[in-house]
Structure formats: structure tokens, C-alpha cells
Design goal:
Glutamine Phosphoribosylpyrophosphate, subunit 1, domain 1; alpha+beta; 2 domains; elongated; 7-stranded antiparallel β-sheet; 16 helices; 482 residues; Rossmann fold
Length: 482
């Protein structure tokens, strides 16, 4: 899971990209980068660094990054490792293209081998680089210079044909002699992207609408799955549907990853989380368990916890204070780092916990590390009982589309029975809770509505992931981080 922002304007864009990337920081803390192109397409400037945006890209970098078109990116690695050479965006000199993406390209080994047959060598393990090279190679096959939108459409169709996986891609290059930002979605639209426009003619493409809010965008639209969109300053977008749309937006974006103020697939993330909470309240009520207070695990679970407290007529209280300088442990690169970070992440408010039957609400259980410690903290703070409620179903299957859940042995729910009631009892004992209530898939679907990718819950992958691709991803994820 990553976040990108592309921008084409009438003046330098780097400072605005840097600002907007900070609104996407929740999507990746591993590294950040910005690449810009001059108005006449004869100069490209790249600046990339490790860590969050403010650390990776400094004032001197911004002063060097001139140009009216550019792409920024924040990354957490689902492919490659946490090293500088895997940091996006990427630049290819022939014919001069900047590219970044969000998602997971699953057949990188096959693409790497195919590119080597054409004497094209990759410089990283990042999965967007082979897509960039395929795009550039297809452009050069059409003509050696002065590329057009028609040339780019041929190259983008090659990506759809050769590149497997889930991806939203943004590209900056010169087409028809004009700086052009190109946005491409895979036919399932698993990963989000939104495009915004300003009255001054500026166009912006981002992984989440929250980044557009920072830049005073006054109109937005989402590219359709399988669509390519060409954006130029002061001009209307050029839109081409390259593949039949088979929409399957990632439901885990709504459950966990996206900011609650984001709008995705014309839906409010906050409202979806409220609905998930209402559905979960029904499952908890049916168990006839007693609770005095509802306490969310900060921060994602707050909307669902609010809805649960309203549905059950229970007090909602903050039982934890979150260290704002502690990163999201789920997206940290290895188990040792995650365990260390957990000790810094949360601190209890004993006054709200002591002597009470606590209904603890969280968004999901992936590996279970956070919740074991959270429940132990509640016990230490004097909770009489701890009932755990999760506003998503059990995560039973790997994600191959851009979230770091690639191996079944990593997944907490895989330890237990496939029967949900039995799983809840067994898992509660392991976590140290008095009970565990998951939302079931049916409740999730009622809350979400419409088509979705929920492969991590139900094992149904909207885009086929061949065995060789799965094995490649699992092998890559098991490599030690730098």
C-alpha cells in the first residue's frame, strides 16, 4: 500500500506536491520521493529519501525541483525492500518518463526476464520499474521522439496486456509537445485514485481525496476501472477506456487503510465505518454479553465504536492515548520493529477502565501482535472483563494486490477453525480476551454495498493470481529488510 500525487499546472509544483504528500503519510512511512519535468520536457529532476516526507525531502530538494509537472510518492514496501533504490517515483531516460503507482504487480519476475531479452536492465526490486520499462519500450517502438497520445495509448495497452496484478499508475511525460499527466487503472479498479481540477487549470491525481482537499480542488472525478486519463494544464481531460470495467474496489481501504475523511468510489469512508459498527453491534447483542463502556483502539476504530455505543446504549470512552509519533505497526517492515513500536504506541487511561466490563473495538486482526498487548494493558489498568469486537471478518487469505498479507502463516485467523463461532472462542483465549466477536462477511457486505474485493476475507480474487506469481510474492516478502 502506497500513496501518490501527480500534478500538472502553469507554474512549479514541487512545493504543493510536498505539502499534499503529508496528507497521504498514513499510506506509507518507509520512503518518499518527488520527480519533476520542465515545461519543454528537456530536464527531469528527481529527489528521493528514506523516512516520512518531511525527513526524506528537505528544503534544498524542493528548491532544486523546478517544473510545472511532477509526481510525488510515499511508500511502504509490498515488493522490494526498504532501501533507497526501491523508492518511487522512477525515471526512465528513453524517452523521458516519470512513473509511480499504488498496488502490487504480481508477475515482476516474468517481466524482468522479458525485459532482459530486450537488453533492458532493472535497477531495483520495486514492482513499478518493470511497468515503467514496458511503457517506455512500447513508446520507443512507435517512434523515436515527439510521442503522441496515440503512441501512449498503445503503450498503456501493453501494460494492461503484460502487467498482472492490481495497480493505479500515474505518469508524467511530454506528449504532442505538451507536459502531460497520465493516469491508468487496472480493469478491476482495486486500488483507489481520484482526479481533481482547480479554476486556474491545474489538474491533480491522487490516491485519496484528502490530498486534494489540501490543494483547494473544486471538482473531482474517479477514473473508471480500465480507463486511461490524459491531463494537461488548462485543457479538458482526454479519457479512453482500454479494458472492460470489472469494478472490485478494495474493502480493506474502507475498513482500515484510508483516512476517515476520504471519499472513495463515491462513498464516505467514515460513513462505511459507521455502518460496519452498526452491523457488528447486532452480532454482539445476539451473544447477550454485558459491557459497561465501549473503548476504541485508536484511531481507525473510532467511527465503528461510536456506532456500537449508540446501538447498544453504552458509554463511549477513550481508554488509550496514542503516541502521535509512533508509526502504524501494521505497515512496518519486520516483526522485531513492530514489537518494539508497540511498546511506544499506546498508553491507558486507568480511570476509564478500572473495575469496568470493557467492550474493546478494533478494525481488524492481521497478525494479532497489537491486540495481545492492548488487552494485557486493559487487564493491568484494572478492567473487570474485556470483550473484543472487530468490525471486519477474520483475515484468512493473503493479499496479492498491495497490502502486506502475503503469507498464510502470518495471518492470525489461520491458526483456528473455519467455523466462525469456534474461531472466536479459540482466538479470544489466545489473545487473553473474555470473548471475541468478528463481523461476518454478510454483515460487511450489507455495510459496504456493491462490488468489492474482499479476497483477504473470502479468498475470492477478482484478478487471477497464478501459482508462480503467488510464490514469487511470498518469496520476496520473506527476504530480510535492509
Amino acid at each position: 500500500m502506497c500513496g501518490f500525487l501527480g500534478m500538472v499546472s502553469g507554474s512549479d509544483v514541487a512545493a504543493q506536491i510536498h505539502l499534499a504528500l503529508q496528507a497521504l503519510q498514513h499510506r506509507g512511512q518507509d520512503s518518499a520521493g518527488i520527480g519533476c519535468m520542465s515545461a519543454c520536457g528537456d530536464r527531469f529532476i528527481m529527489r528521493r529519501g528514506l523516512g516520512p516526507v518531511s525527513q526524506a525531502i528537505g528544503r534544498g530538494d524542493l528548491e532544486a525541483l523546478g517544473g510545472p509537472i511532477g509526481i510525488g510518492h510515499v511508500r511502504y514496501p509490498t515488493s522490494g525492500r526498504g532501501v533507497l533504490e526501491d523508492t518511487q517515483p522512477f525515471f526512465y531516460r528513453v524517452p523521458g518518463v516519470i512513473m509511480a503507482h499504488n498496488g502490487n504487480i504480481t508477475n515482476t519476475d516474468a517481466l524482468r526476464a522479458s525485459l532482459l531479452e530486450r537488453s533492458i536492465h532493472l535497477m531495483s526490486r520495486c514492482d513499478v520499474e518493470p511497468a515503467l520499462c514496458e511503457f517506455a519500450d512500447a513508446l520507443m517502438a512507435e517512434r523515436k521522439a515527439n510521442h503522441t497520445v496515440d503512441d501512449a495509448l498503445i503503450a498503456l495497452r501493453r501494460i494492461h496486456t503484460r502487467v498482472r496484478g492490481a495497480y493505479s499508475i500515474v505518469t508524467a511525460l511530454q506528449l504532442d509537445g505538451v507536459p502531460t499527466l497520465v493516469v491508468l487503472r487496472d480493469p478491476s479498479g482495486v486500488r483507489p485514485v481520484v482526479i481533481g481540477h482547480r479554476p486556474d487549470g491545474t489538474w491533480i491525481a491522487s490516491s485519496e481525496s484528502v490530498a486534494l482537499d489540501v490543494l483547494d480542488v473544486d471538482a473531482t472525478f474517479e477514473p473508471a476501472p480500465g480507463e486511461a486519463v490524459f491531463l494537461r494544464h488548462g485543457q479538458e481531460p482526454i479519457r479512453h477506456l482500454l479494458a472492460e470495467p470489472k469494478p472490485a474496489p478494495c474493502v480493506f481501504e474502507f475498513i482500515y487503510f484510508a483516512r476517515p475523511d476520504a471519499i472513495m468510489s463515491e462513498r464516505s469512508v467514515y460513513e462505511i465505518r459507521l455502518r460496519l459498527g452498526r452491523e457488528l453491534a447486532g452480532r454482539f447483542r445476539a451473544k447477550e454479553l454485558e459491557a459497561d463502556v465501549v473503548i476504541p483502539v485508536p484511531d481507525t476504530a473510532r467511527p465503528a465504536a461510536t456506532a456500537i455505543s449508540e446501538e447498544l446504549g453504552l458509554k463511549l470512552r477513550e481508554g488509550f492515548i496514542k503516541n502521535r509519533y509512533s508509526g502504524r505497526t501494521f505497515i512496518m517492515p519486520d516483526q522485531g520493529t513492530r514489537q518494539s513500536a508497540l511498546r511506544l504506541k499506546l498508553n491507558t487511561i486507568p480511570h476509564e477502565i478500572r473495575g469496568r466490563n470493557v467492550l474493546l473495538v478494533d478494525d481488524s486482526i492481521v497478525r494479532g501482535n497489537t491486540l495481545r498487548r492492548v488487552i494485557a494493558q486493559l487487564r493491568q489498568a484494572g478492567a473487570q472483563t474485556v470483550h473484543l469486537a472487530i468490525h471486519s471478518p477474520p483475515v484468512r487469505h493473503p493479499c496479492f494486490y498491495g497490502i502486506d498479507m502475503s503469507t498464510e502463516e502470518d495471518l492470525f485467523a489461520q491458526q483456528f477453525s473455519q467455523d466462525l463461532d469456534v474461531l472466536e472462542d479459540e482466538a479470544a483465549a489466545v489473545l487473553g480476551a473474555d470473548s471475541l466477536t468478528y463481523l461476518n462477511v454478510e454483515g460487511m457486505d450489507r455495510a459496504f454495498g456493491g462490488p468489492r474485493c474482499a479476497a483477504c476475507f473470502d479468498g475470492v480474487y477478482p484478478r487471477a493470481v497464478p501459482v508462480e506469481d503467488r510464490e514469487q510474492i511470498v518469496h520476496d516478502r520473506k527476504q530480510p529488510s535492509a
